[in-house]
């Protein structure tokens, strides 16, 4: 019954409209690489001069055009974060021995980066406290996924503070996934305990405190919780927040949060799965969706403007004369996810050319933008 009070529908012009095609956008592939002329010490971790990563995903872009995300250097390798600034890739790895993965999700104009890292299993004979940045009781336990904040060469862990329920019982939250950091330093993401299901709630860390979509978490007018949810971005000051929740049919749905009320969103009438991944200061937001009857892993990218016009389809289209990862000019990707949009309307994300193919990052540049 979680949808009974909390969710209202965005106007039918958004829910039922068709889509415009982003024919005027310029699409550029992004793959972490090391120039053949570079010194080996200058290459991103795991790559040698002349090498290109086996997989790349672009997750965040700031107003200056800096891009963050993740890459896998070789097939079967681990995820590492990256920063692309002024044409140069550098690695972003959380500095703890044995770290199993790092993903950089968001970056603001100041250059502050947020993301997640996955720990190795701790010493089971001498376990740290559950709220420790080193707590990881088992390789498959999502409690091993922690949030991080990185700026000016320094890392710190981002975790949600202990909460107290209506019965006075304390609850520690050992996991977190930060997705975005705004110009004013607010961090949007989610908290979780030992699963990425019922214990996962959208969360926001601000200079005024930490808030969430958990029961009485402070983000909603109604105290009813919204489990299996994520906050994925917000406008400056938090006036509008976007993200995803899981509906009664166990499908992810995008949401827009205004004035303490969540509004479910779908970019087309046939949408049966959706997620909103970011919003810029002008209230344009981006994400991904799938329609009824499509293959399970099929994804389309979209951009929605705040004026209520039709959403814009942003499925990656190869515009390179030499082709894209072996696919010829004009190929439309099987799956595209738009993860972030900056103040200029430039979008980044990831695509797979065919079902099950390796991931590549992309930039989608609107007309008239340098």
Would you give an account of this structure?
With 370 residues, this protein is mainly beta. The protein has a domain at 1-30 and 252-370. It is built from 2 helices and 28 strands. A 5-stranded mixed beta sheet has the order 1-21-20-19-18. Strand 20 and strand 21 form a beta hairpin. The longest helix is centred in the first third of the chain and has 4 residues, at 3-6. It is globular. The N and C termini lie far apart (48 Å). 46% of the residues are buried. The model is unreliable at 1-17 (pLDDT under 50).
The count of strands amounts to 28
Strands side by side in the biggest sheet: 1-21-20-19-18
Approximate shape? globular
Binned, the helix content reads under 10%
The low-pLDDT segments are 1-17
Structural class: mainly beta
Instruction: Please summarize the sheet with the most strands.
Output: 5 strands, mixed
How confident overall, as mean pLDDT? Answer: 93
Order of helices and strands: HEHEEEEEEEEEEEEEEEEEEEEEEEEEEE
Computed CA radius of gyration, to the nearest angstrom: 20 Å
């Amino acid at each position: 019954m979680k949808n009974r009070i909390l969710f209202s529908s965005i106007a039918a012009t958004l829910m039922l409209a068709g889509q415009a095609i982003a024919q005027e956008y310029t699409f550029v592939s992004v793959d972490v690489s090391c120039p053949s002329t570079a010194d080996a010490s200058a290459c991103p971790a795991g790559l040698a001069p002349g090498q290109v990563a086996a997989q790349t995903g672009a997750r965040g872009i700031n107003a200056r055009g800096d891009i963050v995300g993740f890459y896998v250097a070789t097939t079967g390798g681990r995820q590492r974060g990256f920063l692309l600034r002024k044409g140069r890739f550098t690695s972003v790895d959380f500095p703890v021995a044995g770290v199993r993965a790092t993903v950089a999700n968001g970056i603001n104009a100041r250059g502050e980066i947020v993301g997640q890292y996955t720990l190795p299993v701790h010493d089971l004979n001498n376990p740290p406290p559950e709220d420790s940045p080193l707590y990881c009781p088992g390789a498959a336990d999502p409690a091993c996924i922690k949030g991080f904040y990185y700026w000016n060469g320094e890392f710190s862990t981002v975790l949600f503070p202990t909460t107290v329920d209506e019965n006075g019982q304390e609850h520690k939250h050992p996991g977190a996934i930060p997705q975005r950091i705004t110009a004013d330093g607010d961090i949007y993401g989610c908290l979780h305990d030992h699963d990425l299901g019922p214990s996962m709630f959208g969360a926001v860390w601000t200079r005024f405190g930490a808030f969430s979509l958990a029961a009485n978490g402070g983000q909603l007018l109604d105290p009813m919780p919204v489990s299996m949810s994520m906050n994925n971005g917000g406008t400056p000051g938090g006036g509008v927040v976007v993200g995803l929740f899981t509906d009664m049919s166990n499908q992810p749905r995008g949401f827009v949060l205004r004035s303490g009320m969540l509004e479910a969103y779908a970019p087309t009438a046939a949408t049966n799965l959706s997620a909103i991944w970011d919003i810029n200061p002008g209230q344009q937001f981006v994400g991904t969706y799938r329609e009824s009857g499509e293959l399970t892993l099929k994804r389309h990218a979209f951009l929605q403007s705040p004026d209520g016009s039709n959403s814009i389809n942003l499925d990656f289209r190869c515009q390179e004369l030499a082709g894209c990862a072996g696919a010829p000019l004009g190929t439309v990707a099987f799956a595209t996810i738009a993860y972030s949009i900056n103040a200029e309307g430039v979008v980044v994300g990831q695509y797979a050319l065919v079902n099950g193919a390796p991931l590549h990052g992309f930039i989608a540049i609107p007309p008239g933008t340098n």
